[in-house]
Design a protein that fits this description.
295 residues, alpha+beta, 8 strands
Length: 295
C-alpha cells in the first residue's frame, strides 16, 4: 500500500518531497563537480602563480652581522654572540650550496627544483597530486641563542645540562600548488586544485642540551625542545578550479597543525660524536630508551 502510494501516477506530496531531495543532491553534485573540482589530467598547468609576501624588506647578511655586533656592545653580559655569528655564517653556506653557488634567477631555479623534487618524494601519492613549487625564499638570517645557563645535575648518575632560548626571525616562504585527489566512487574521480603560500615570521623555543654520558655504549649530544614553542606562520590559499575560495581558515589551521605536530615529533635530536659512535648505534640506543620509557 505504502509503495503503491509513493510510486502512483498521480502526483502526491511524498513524491514531490523525494524528487525535490534528489534534485537538490544532483544540483549540489553538479556545482561541486564543475565549479570547484577539476576532472582534467594533472598536466594542465595552473594559471595561479603565488608569490611570497614581499612587503617586508629582505634581510641582508651584512646587516644581520652589524645587528649582532650592536647587540654585543649593548649587552656586555651576553655570552652567546660568537655562536650567533657562527650560526649565521653556517646558514649562509647552506643557502649558497642549495643554489649551487649561483646568484640571481639561475640560482633561484636550482633551489626551486631541489625543493620540488624533495616535496614530491615525500608527498602521499594517493592523496595529493604532483606538487609544483613556484618560488622559495630562504631568508638571510639565522637562529639566535640567548640566556644560556647551566642546570645542576639532578642525581649521581645524571650530568649537568645546559639550556638556552632560541629565536628565529626571518623572511622564509614557499609558494606551491597541487591538487587533492578524490578516489570515490572511482579512482581519480576528481581533483581539487590547491595553491598555497606559507611564510614563517617568528619561531622561538627553549632548548635543553644534555652532554654525552660516559657510561653510554653510544655517546651522543642530546638536544631537546619542549612542545611549548612559539610558531608564527602566515598563509594564503586558493581552492577550486573555476570558482575559487580564497584564504580558507580551516586550511591554515591544518597547515599550522601539521607543522607543529612534525616539530613535536622531532623534538629530540641526537648528535653523533665522531670517533665514539656511529648513527646506527645511536638509533639502537634511542630505541632502547623508548622501550624503557625514558624521555
Amino acid at each position: 500500500m505504502g509503495a503503491g502510494y509513493i510510486f502512483s501516477l498521480q502526483p502526491t506530496f511524498t513524491q514531490g518531497l523525494i524528487i525535490g531531495q534528489f534534485s537538490i543532491l544532483a544540483l549540489l553534485a553538479v556545482v561541486l563537480k564543475y565549479l570547484f573540482l577539476d576532472a582534467e589530467p594533472s598536466q594542465r598547468t595552473s594559471s595561479y602563480r603565488p608569490h611570497a609576501d614581499r612587503e617586508a624588506p629582505a634581510l641582508q647578511p651584512a646587516l644581520v652581522l652589524n645587528q649582532i655586533e650592536k647587540d654585543t656592545v649593548q649587552s656586555e653580559s651576553e655570552s652567546t654572540e660568537w655562536v650567533n655569528t657562527l650560526l649565521l655564517q653556517i646558514a649562509n653556506v647552506y643557502r649558497s650550496k642549495l643554489r649551487d653557488d649561483l646568484p640571481g634567477a639561475e640560482g633561484d631555479e636550482i633551489l626551486r627544483r631541489r625543493v620540488e623534487d624533495f616535496a614530491n618524494r615525500t608527498r602521499p601519492a594517493g592523496i595529493l597530486d604532483r606538487i609544483q613549487v613556484h618560488s622559495v625564499q630562504l631568508g638571510a638570517s639565522a637562529p639566535r641563542l640567548s640566556d644560556a645557563q647551566s642546570t645542576p645535575a639532578a642525581g649521581a648518575d645524571s650530568t649537568e645540562m645546559s639550556e638556552f632560548d632560541v629565536t628565529y626571525k626571518d623572511n622564509v616562504s614557499i609558494s606551491l600548488s597541487t591538487a587533492y585527489l578524490f578516489n570515490y566512487p572511482t579512482f581519480g574521480f576528481a581533483r581539487l586544485p590547491v595553491s598555497v603560500t606559507i611564510s614563517l615570521s617568528v619561531f622561538s623555543c627553549h632548548i635543553f642540551v644534555a652532554p654525552p654520558s660516559p657510561s653510554s655504549p653510544a655517546p651522543a649530544l642530546t638536544l631537546t625542545m619542549p612542545p611549548t614553542f612559539t610558531l608564527d606562520l602566515r598563509s594564503t590559499s586558493l581552492l577550486g578550479s573555476r570558482a575559487k575560495l580564497a584564504d580558507v581558515p580551516k586550511l591554515h589551521e591544518l597547515i599550522d597543525g601539521q607543522i607543529r605536530r612534525a616539530l613535536i615529533q622531532r623534538g629530540t635530536w641526537k648528535i653523533v660524536l665522531p670517533g665514539l659512535s656511529i648513527v646506527e648505534e645511536v638509533k639502537k640506543e634511542v630505541d632502547r630508551e623508548l622501550e624503557r620509557g625514558l624521555p
